[in-house]
Amino acid sequence: MAPAMSDWSALPMDLVNLISQGIDTEIDLIRFRSVCCNWRSSSIRKHHLNILPFEFPLFKFRSLFDSIINDNTIPFFCYLSKCSFFLIKPPHEQQQTLIRHRPWLVRIRQYSNGKTQILNPLISYQSPFDSLHSIDFNKLSVIHLGTDFIVHDDSLLYDYMYPEKIVAFTGNEKKPIVLGAFTTTSKPILLKCSNENRNGIPVMTAWFEDICIFKGRPYVVHKTGRTATLGLDDFTFELVAESLVSGGGDIKFLVESDGDLLLVDVYESIGFDLMVNVLRLDEKEMRWVNLMSLGDRVLFLGNGCSFSASASDLCVSKGNCVIFIDDAILNFNFENILYGNCIFDLVEGRVSPLCDCPEYFNLFWPPPDWIVKRS
């Protein structure tokens, strides 16, 4: 007689909570919470970085810097949504067949109330996939590529200033800390916010281009390429790289790739094609060094989040290219071709609209047949 199947939903909730506290990766927690509705509602989300509902302070548009340093100013608090980028691949048994199943690169938005929504990563405004209602991560091969945070749509107030980019990390006390980057103000600043201090603390007032998390610490790049990291003890900045010669290009992106911190330096000029240089941080020499090739890697650069993946994981023929998504770059060349979502080939030194490169464009749209049939 075959043994009876265990009813995992009948586990005591105290035990479910205890198990969930030991999970420290995004994918594993999603899979844990998708076992059944009891596990989803009972697992303690507040123990996990970047998952708990988080309030972020907003200040009036005209006096953002003065509002922050003025203790009498009461900010408006908004909730943040978490957007995660995943590369979803077929189950392993399907990957072993002779039929090639392309993966799907998708963005999933998680609201503070636990609701989730599947979005198109190529579009800056919210564009849900209405035909897909659920994805069972327990039955698929999933790679977590990156995460960003955005303000809830229902929190938007037009007389308030909103951060261009938000990142989250843990300090030495292992408590979540959120940094919001405001780069279009007269005095660009970073706002530090945690559950213990919700008012926000300005931690940097120099002009900067991008911010990212590398090895668990925030890194900020100046428009000249000068780069610093934020100390986790006193929240002061420590220089890690000097400026580029002549300051480099017009737009800079920071992105982690295969254990290295890269700087993507973009030269843009209306009427001409984009030019892109990729540099690697030499931590010992405290400088950026030119990177001649990305090898198998593909860089994805967006307004809120940048990440990388291998060409083999993406199931594309080659890497060594940079893909701009989320309308991170908007430029017209001399042929009046708009480069919004585009791809730059580092070997050929040429930029093309992403829609002209179906092998890469199809990573985002349309959803592959194998996942549509499963939803």
UniProtKB/TrEMBL annotation:
Gene Ontology annotations of biological process type: protein ubiquitination
Boundaries of every KIB1-4 beta-propeller domain copy: 85-333
A Pfam family that the UniProt record links to this protein: Beta-prop_KIB1-4
UniProt protein name: F-box SKIP23-like protein
Encoding gene per record: 11425474
InterPro entries recorded: KIB1-4_b-propeller, SCF_F-box_domain
